[in-house]
Write a structure and sequence with these properties.
Elements (H helix, E strand, L loop, with lengths): L3 E6 L5 H11 L4 E6 L3 H8 L4 H16 L4 E4 L5 H8 L6 E3 L2 H10 L2 E6 L5 H14 L5 E6 L1 H8 L3 H15 L5 E4 L18 E2 L1 H12 L3
Parallel strand pairs: 1-2, 1-3, 3-4, 5-6, 5-7, 7-8
Helix pairs in contact: 1-9, 5-6, 7-8
């Protein structure tokens, strides 16, 4: 029987892309999802993860464990710190999709630009990059840019405007930082438009899934 990965997510977006990529690398991989489509909204409304959000994520992790998952992958950066806390007290390995990206960013330099569309993503994304930097003996300076208008465009169904606003902002940052970190996995769609950047632009989709596959024995 093949290995089993359970993916915890706060949006149904990119599910098909995730399955396609994982299956292309490990065809016999069993892939399951647990989705809480209002969790991100709850965190945004409260300004930080609430007790309810923490309890729900714990229940999802325990459910994934009971499902027999060999690996649990948290894909929402906003609850990344919560996932780290839960990982310490459950038996199954629970990892963050943005951890490999954070390690790469910390290795590229001391001045990192972090771009997101929701304010609540900033702190957990900053925390993991700073932590990875300290593991390398470095203090990372992070400049955060929150594109609220891009979030509003995406929420209204205007994906093209969402993408354009982010591409414009990231292009403005080119050459000013050691790396640009796109905090949300959904920003993967921007990568083809950013191929000409001088500054490395990092996204967690490929690096996070590749790391998960390696942990599963690929």
């Amino acid at each position: 029987m093949g290995k089993h990965i359970c993916i915890l997510q706060t949006s149904f977006a990119k599910r098909d892309d995730t399955i396609e990529y994982l299956k292309s690398r490990m065809p016999d991989l069993r892939i399951s999802f647990i989705t809480d489509s209002v969790m991100l909204e709850d965190v945004r409304n409260a300004g930080a993860p609430t007790a309810s959000v923490r309890e729900r994520l714990m229940l999802y992790a325990l459910a994934a464990e009971k499902m027999g998952a060999d690996l649990i992958l948290n894909t929402c950066s906003t609850v990344g710190d919560v996932a780290d806390d839960i990982a310490r007290i459950i038996s199954a390995p629970l990892v963050r999709i943005d951890a490999p990206m954070a390690r790469q960013a910390a290795s590229l330099g001391d001045n990192i630009a972090l771009i997101s569309t929701v304010e609540t993503t900033v702190a957990p994304s900053r925390n993991i990059i700073v932590r990875e930097g300290r593991a390398l003996g470095r203090e990372i300076n992070i400049s955060a840019f929150v594109e609220q208008a891009a979030w509003e465009a995406l929420s209204s169904g205007d994906t093209a405007l969402h993408n354009r606003l982010l591409i414009e902002r990231i292009s403005d940052l080119d050459g000013k930082y050691d790396a640009v970190v796109m905090a949300q996995v959904s920003m993967r769609a921007l990568l083809p438009e950013l191929s000409g950047m001088k500054t490395p632009v990092l996204c967690s989709f490929y690096s996070g899934l590749d790391a998960a596959l390696q942990m599963l024995g690929l």
